[in-house]
Amino acid sequence: MPVEIQGVFDAIGQFFANPLIQLAIQAAGVYVVILWLAAAFWAFRDLQLRTDNPVLPYLASTLIIVFTPVFFPLAVIVYRVIRPQERIGEVSERQLAEEALLAEVDNIRTCPTCSRRVHEEWLICPTCRTRLNRVCPHCGKLVGLDWSLCAWCGKDFERREPIAGPMATPAMASPALTELPSDSRPVTVRSRGRAGARGSGDGRQATPRPSPLAQTDALTER
Asked: Which helix (H) or strand (E) holds 133?
């Protein structure tokens, strides 16, 4: 080996033999090992936030550890490629946003006939004149056509009110008529008048009363 090359190797050996250089090399090695383990822990925690499978986080951290402190950056790159793109919280937020959008679309009322958008307080569709709501006769608020009772006042639409009047119930009949026996017949005024004109039952005839004109003539003659 030439003297010049031997001198270069000796200089390199002396450089690395320096205690400060050795300390720096050891610190760098410790830093790489810490970074390697931190990458494995980061992959474990990151995959826990992205999947519900309890085994996959351990596989990800094991993949980085297997690649040793020298090649673990390659393992981190592979993990970044194959990991799920969304976290569990982001997926939940997206699903909630979609459900809220669908609920808002469902709340938009449309006419059942022409499918046009209508207002909730409209009684009739202005496009096709389809009846949409009705008014409660008791409280005056809008109710649905398919409601069996009013949700505001409790009015039952299927129950019919009894007709008020003198012939509504038998209890309103005259008590005198209800107390008559079955074999008795009421005597009308007309029959009583005829009986009085014929006279009483003792054989005497009723004396006719003089007219007012005859009474006046009699007083004049006196």
From this structure: strand 133-135
Q: Is 69 exposed, middle or buried (CB count within 10 Å of its CB: 0-12, 13-18, 19+)?
A: middle
The model's pTM:
0.46
For residues 64 and 27, the answer to whether their CB atoms sit within 8 Å is no
By CB atoms closer than 10 A (0-12, 13-18, 19+), residue 155 is: middle
In this predicted model, what pLDDT tens digit does every residue of 202-213 receive, in sequence order?
Answer: 444 444 555 554
In one-letter notation, the amino acid at residue 171 is A
How far apart are alpha carbons 67 and 37 in whole angstroms?
Answer: 11
Would you kindly state where each structural domain of the chain is located, as residue ranges? 12-89, 109-161
pLDDT in tens, 56-67: 999 999 999 999
Residues 6 or more apart from 110 whose CB is under 8 A from it?
Answer: 116, 117, 118
- CA 65 – CA 38 distance, rounded (Å): 10
Exposure b/e, 105-135, CB count within 10 A at least 16 = b: eeeeeebeeeeeebeeeeeebeeeeeebbee
The Cα–Cα gap between 205 and 190 comes to 19
Q: Which two tokens stand for residue 32?
A: 């790489």
